[in-house]
Amino acid sequence: MLKNKIIFAGISTLIFVLIIYIVHRHVFYHPVAITIEIRSDSVEHSQLYYDTGGGFNSAEVINQRYSTKSTFRKITYTIPTWNVHYFRIDPGRRSTKFEVKRITMNTGSQSIEWNPKAILSGFTLVDLVRIDSANHSLLILKPINGKDSQIICKSSLIDQFNIVDHFTKRLCYLATTLLYLLVMAMIFFIKKNIKAQINLKYHDIINYCSLIFKNADKTYVHTIIILFLCKLILVSVQQMTVYGNYVHDDALFIRQAYSIAAGNWLGDYDSFTLIKGFIYPLFISLSSFFGIPLFLAQHLLYGFACLVLVRSFSAIMNGTSRKVLLFSILLFNPMASSDFTLRILRESLYTSLTMIVIAAFVGMCMSRKHSSNSILRWSLLASVSLFAFWNTREEGLLIFPLIVGLTAFSILTISPEMMPETLNQRTLRRISASWKPSIIFLLPFIILLFGNFVVASINYYKYGRFVTNEMKSEAYTSAFSALSDIKQNTRHANVPVPEDVRIKAYKASPSFAELEFFLEGSENGFLNYGNGDKKEISGAGFMWAFREAAARAGYHCSLPQSQEFYEQVAREINLAFKKGTLEKSEAFTVFEFTLDQRLIAPIKELLRKELVFIATFHGYSSQASDSKGDDKSFARFQNITNEAVYFPKDNAFKSYRFIMIKYKIMNLVAKIYGILNPLILAISLLSFMFLTIVLAFQTKGAETVDTWLFLFGFLYLVITRMLLIAYISASQWYAINGIYLSLVYPFLLSFEILSIFAAVDYLKRKRQLA
After folding, report:
1. Contact assessment for residue 643 and residue 293, using Cβ atoms and an 8 Å cutoff
2. Burial class (CB in 10 A: 0-12, 13-18, 19+), 2
3. Are 62 and 4 in contact (CB under 8 A)?
4. pTM of the prediction?
5. How far apart are CA 715 and CA 684, in angstroms?
6. CA distance 92 to 73
7. Which terminus of the chain is less hemmed in, N or C, by CB atoms within 10 Å?
8. Residue 40: left (phi > 0), alpha (psi -120 to 50), or beta?
9. How many CB atoms sit inside 10 A of residue 130's CB?
10. Contact, 165 vs 154, CB < 8 A?
11. DSSP helix/strand/coil, 125
């Protein structure tokens, strides 16, 4: 007994030392944000240099372009490292004068502000001459002979601020130490055998899980846990791909996650702040707060989504083996661990949330004639997941026909006597007495409206306008639609606003004309994307070019300013339509999508390619792609995700046989899926057609109706997603890849398995009756 305790204590001590070592090497820091409020008389290229100990150099610089004209512009530089000693701002070299209101620096909850007087005492001015002014709230500076003007901070930032969050690190030390002491106490003060205690606690957990899974048998729970652990062991070999300069995706989510972690919502406003939902940055921030590696958190959520989806079909899936089969097929779906899931992208989270939302609405529908308590639990899950789903990506409206249809079907077919008889809790009795039972089915939509109201209120308080997402705001969509509605001289199916339309718009809209310098200039990186023409901008490229041009023109200094600008553009172009100075196109534009009959033929061909791509699991790769960026961006990504960056040059680990076995197993699983799935898909489609014919001539059998409805819903999700991706590929950019089609696979696999099971069960019932 003593020997076992000593061995166990030794192993625990080694684990403790290892954890302390990992925490010690981990840097917890608050991002440093430096903002200058400035006005110039020309378009400028400003730079912020930061010194990490080796002086100012070209490798440690942040570039910004701006144009202020009559308004002041807030330019924010976020420094991607923690060991910052000094910084300097180079405001530009084109202008004849610069007017500076203030310079501020924020890191965590700490901040400092330099007004004009403080700037003169706290900064060194190089190649800049101060011009006296009666307005003491402004510092007016004149460059000397077009040289590189510099505003250099005299004091070290490390001396002034606690950039490194030592408190968080101390908390990690404390938590690890307490856990270690607890384990030691169990070893030396519990007289019973440690192994027996662990087994006892394990069985308690299994019994509790059995209750959660509606009294599922222990075999099912054990199998689920083993399968999930196997999945986690396989994916543990994968590493993160960092794209440090992808400001619309990966880098944006990391930036916003740091802001949320610092209690600064989504950070200071610019043209990127509200272009995407806040849920994924929040998820990154929460994972970091709890010390869970980001990809582990995503796999945990996906495993939960698979489990919930299987659980929602328990009433129409007979037998533990079928549930285990469906769970394992969903869990080991190759596209849930493909290379794109190793980037900081919201698609992995979005797929899991979509599965949970659909499962919750299916669960409510399946419980409508059994238990109101069960309906309420599913309704609460649907409420939380629907709100998170809606605020993750922008095309959430596509699933609404399905969930609204399921809700209407549930309300219309619910038993009127069911809820008052089965309510067991006092609170639920009161709800039932005062409200119609259908209110529980409508709760997710109520919570969604209320949640979005709260988010819009936060944005109003923080940024000045009542919007949840700027890309879906009426101001921006109306401006984009107005530009897309201008008749083109030569129609390009994949160029929504070609050069001839932009020229017309410049003449009709003075506001839009202010963007001509940026949209038509050589610095517009979105040009040369449309049909090989160097003057065209294809698809969604114009959406980003439009916003970038507005930002460079100084119209994204604040949210009210940007909204007013887009509203003004829309008003001026629509007024030109009314006056007849602009001719309106016959094509119809909704949001950023233009309906054009010439897209029908290419969409048909793309749908065929999509079907082959999806059915064969084409494009799967278990290996991370090469990372792009510098050491600072790699450190910034690693710090908040708790994941290791993949470096091709450091691939010595590939020589380890066990690691390579994991990669080979994942590739083998993907290959098996790709070989078997086309045949299974064909059988499942035949099974669904058979069930449809049976249902058309069947007068009884609610179970068949429910099953067919859910299968139709899954098929609807698959087809609508495929149509969307085919449209995008035909009109904007080629989007037939695992990233955009990842949502299809779980529902396609569920459709295949459930339709075959349903057809087999029907034939069995017919045979028994015969």
Report:
1. yes
2. exposed
3. no
4. 0.73
5. 11
6. 14
7. C
8. beta
9. 13
10. no
11. strand
User: Using one digit for the tens of pLDDT, what is the confidence trace for 3-20?
Assistant: 555 655 566 666 655 555
Cβ–Cβ under 8 Å, residues 629 and 243? yes
Rounded CA gap, 319 and 314, in Å? 9
Q: How many CB atoms lie within 10 A of CB 173?
A: 14
Q: What is the pLDDT of residues 358-368, one digit of tens each?
A: 999 998 888 87
For 532: left if phi > 0, alpha if psi spans -120 to 50, otherwise beta; the answer is: left
In the predicted model, what is the mean pLDDT of residues 60-84? 74
Residue with tokens 């001590």: 13
- 73-79 and 32-40 strand pairing: antiparallel
Instruction: Write down the pLDDT at residue 304.
Output: 93
Secondary structure (3-state) at 443: helix
In the sheet with 44-51, reading across from the earlier edge strand, the strands are 61-66, 44-51, 86-90, 150-153, 123-126
From CA 556, how far away is CA 272, in angstroms rounded? 9
At 678, phi and psi to the nearest 5?
-55, -40
Q: What is the mean pLDDT of residues 307-317?
A: 85
Q: Among 177-186, 198-207, 212-221, 559-568, which stretch is predicted with the lowest mean pLDDT? A: 198-207
| Residue listed under structure tokens 């011009």 | 131
- Sorted by sequence, the CB contacts under 8 Å of residue 732 that are 6+ apart come out as 494, 538, 539, 540, 541
For 464, counting Cβ atoms within 10 Å of its Cβ (0-12 exposed, 13-18 middle, 19+ buried), the class is: middle
Residue with tokens 């058309």: 696
- Closest C-alpha among 94, 50, 103 to residue 76: 103
Reduced to 3 states (helix: H, G, I; strand: E, B; else coil), residue 38 is strand
CB 483 within 8 A of CB 574: no
Rg (CA), the chain: 30
Pairing, β 128-131 against β 86-90:
unpaired
Residue owning tokens 């075999």: 219
| Residue 444 to residues 384, 407, 433, 439, 462, Cα–Cα distance (Å) | 8, 10, 20, 10, 27
Alpha carbon distance 346, 725 (integer Å): 17
How far apart CA 28 and CA 407 sit, in angstroms, is 46
Spatial contact of 114 and 168, defined as CB atoms under 8 Å apart? no
Q: How confident is the model at residue 531 (pLDDT cuts 50, 70, 90)?
A: low
Element (H, E) at 185: helix 166-189
Backbone angles phi, psi at 140, to 5 degrees: -100, 125
Summarize pLDDT for 656-707 with one digit per residue, the tens: 556 678 888 899 999 999 999 999 999 999 999 998 888 877 655 556 788 8
Q: If you average pLDDT over residues 574-578, what whole number do you get? A: 88
Residues for the chain: how many in total? 770
Q: Which pair of tokens denotes residue 334?
A: 């190759």
- DSSP assignment of 654-669: GG-HHHHHHHHHHHHH
* Contact (Cβ atoms closer than 8 angstroms) between residue 708 and residue 582: no
Average pLDDT, stretch 30-53?
82
H/E/C letters for each residue in 274-343?
CCCCCHHHHHHHHHHHCCCCHHHHHHHHHHHHHHHHHHHCHHHCCCHHHHHHHHHHHHCCHHHCCHHHHC
Provide the β-strand partners of residue 129.
142
Mean pLDDT of 247-252: 87
What is the distance between the alpha carbons of residues 694 and 759, in angstroms, rounded to a whole number? 10
pLDDT digits (tens, 9 = 90+) for 402-461: 999 888 888 887 755 444 444 444 444 444 443 556 788 888 999 999 999 999 999 998
Is residue 591's pLDDT more than 70? no
Q: What are the C-alpha distances in Å from 192 to residues 7, 181, 206, 249?
A: 16, 18, 21, 54
Distance, CA of 231 to CA of 210 (rounded, Å): 21
Q: 691 to each of 678, 717, 762, 764, how far by Cα in Å?
A: 20, 19, 8, 13
